[in-house]
Write a structure and sequence with these properties.
binds protoporphyrin IX containing FE; 16% strand; NO_sig/Golgi_transp_ligand-bd; alpha+beta; Heme_NO-bd; H-NOX domain; H-NOX_domain_sf; single chain; 48% helix; heme binding; Heme NO-binding domain-containing protein
Length: 185
């Protein structure tokens, strides 16, 4: 995963748990965390998992809560990464519809060696849609959290129903979305 995400995770931990927890956790990691993460570098996912596991243990929260909380916090920060025409819309559906292109085209311009997840978006009625997420990282709770962050950011409630193992693929999940405001996309 990109150093950028590690750096955002550090900001999140320091905001919700404090700098002491963050620095203690970094000290406990089995990898060398003394040099700090470089935004543009790729780091092994195992390092992210290890850091998250240590912090979760220190805070006494579940991994599900941690992934959801980080995702929810993350959306405004991620949206700042791209020029406003990609994210400034009156409804989250506009961004969700182009989520795969955002990760695979726009993000690759910033970080050519990124390994982003895949998304498919189908609008089913003006109030409902399906978002299909595929990634070997299986960060389903993170996606749920980002959706909650989007709900707040765009001021549109989103009810989310998750179906894992979509079409027999462990790496794939379908999210059924129900919006409180309609969108004719
Ligand atoms: C709109 C602005 C967004 C930007 C700029 C953005 C950017 C990024 C970046 C930089 C990564 C790391 C990729 C890597 O390390 O190779 C990433 C990963 C990820 N993004 Fe986004 N993202 C955006 C929106 C979203 C939304 C709306 C969702 C979910 C609804 C989402 C879900 C994820 C997930 C789950 C990952 C983790 C990687 C994986 O699962 O394989 N992102 N994104």
């Amino acid at each position: 995963m990109k150093g950028h995400i590690f750096m955002l995770l550090e900001d999140f931990i320091s905001e919700v748990a404090g700098d002491e927890v963050l620095y203690d956790a970094l000290d406990e990691c089995s990898f060398d965390s003394s040099k700090g993460f470089v935004r543009t570098e790729n780091y092994p996912d195992e390092q992210l998992v290890e850091l998250v596991n240590i912090v979760v243990g220190k805070m006494g929260i579940s991994l599900t809560q941690a992934h959801f909380g980080f995702g929810e916090w993350l959306y405004p920060k991620l949206s700042n990464l791209l020029p406003p025409q990609f994210t400034q819309y009156p409804h989250p559906a506009y961004v969700l519809k182009q989520l795969d292109d955002l990760h695979h085209i726009e993000l690759k311009k910033l970080y050519p060696d990124a390994q982003p997840p895949a998304f498919q978006y189908h609008s089913t009625t003006p109030y409902t849609a399906q978002l299909i997420y595929t990634s070997p990282r299986r960060l389903f709770d993170l996606v749920k959290g980002v959706l909650a962050g989007m709900s707040c950011y765009y001021d549109v409630d989103i009810e989310v129903e998750l179906q894992t193992n979509w079409q027999g693929n462990n790496n794939c999940a379908k999210f059924l979305l129900k919006y409180s405001k309609s969108c004719d996309l």
